[in-house]
Amino acid sequence: MKKIAVVLLFFFIGIEAFAQDMIIYKDKTIDEVTIVEVTPDFVKYREYGAPINSTMFSVERDYLSKLIFESGRVMDMSKTIMNDERVYAGQRNKALKIDVAGMSGNYTFLSYEQSVDPSTSWEAGMIFVGAGFENQNGWNDPENAMGIGVNMGYKFKRSPNFYMSRMRYGHILRGAYVKPNLWLNMFNYDRIDYDHPPDPVTFQYPSSRESATAGTVMIDFGNQLVFSDQFVVDYAAGVGYGFTTKDTWNVSNYGFIGGLGPQSGTPLTFSFTLKVGYLLPTK
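Above: the chain sequence. Below: its structure as tokens.
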């Protein structure tokens, strides 16, 4: 019985000896200390075992990885206020948008965006080819295209060149960004055959109904504005590589232009979007 009591005594003495606060730096350095106060900018501490009236030190939070307290609690110090999701609690983080620029190109592009964290979000949408306005008097003849497509992308918001104290995003969905994204469209269109003479009565060239598939991988560079936590305006321009089976000189693939195909010798693709949308209420 005495042996058990002695073992337990040494066990609790050992726990007391190792029970202390620890500051862990980003370079993996560890300081064994007594933490006095944690503020938004600094951690104040005394050397471990020093009397209460001894010199107190402080270290900026930017140097730290985590704090481990005597109680066993761990505090993550690597997360800044800019990327702390709790700062944006209550803000709407989902949006439904429509590309108003696309409607003049004879398609309607609807998309849904949802934030993953304060600096990233994903977006997916559907393209309805033919649900728009087609130029009847331009340099290209009307194609009367009809079809459908999909678009998927992931946004990475631009980080500031330097950080100021207490800096954060104005809204969880607001800010400049780059967005890798993928387009894939399938549609039917009227192909005008200019290699044959026009009809002598109607003066129209013969045409045939063709089908086409077009796709591209792009990077968009854009900016999204948020108004009153209810409305968004998202504008972006993109560049990438793609393909098309569309056999005309009209380079529009309804959502993007260009791509390697029968009438195009370059795989370069380009796009421009101007979306307006509504932020969905949070539960």
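Residues 85-279 form a domain with the Porin fold (CATH 2.40.160).
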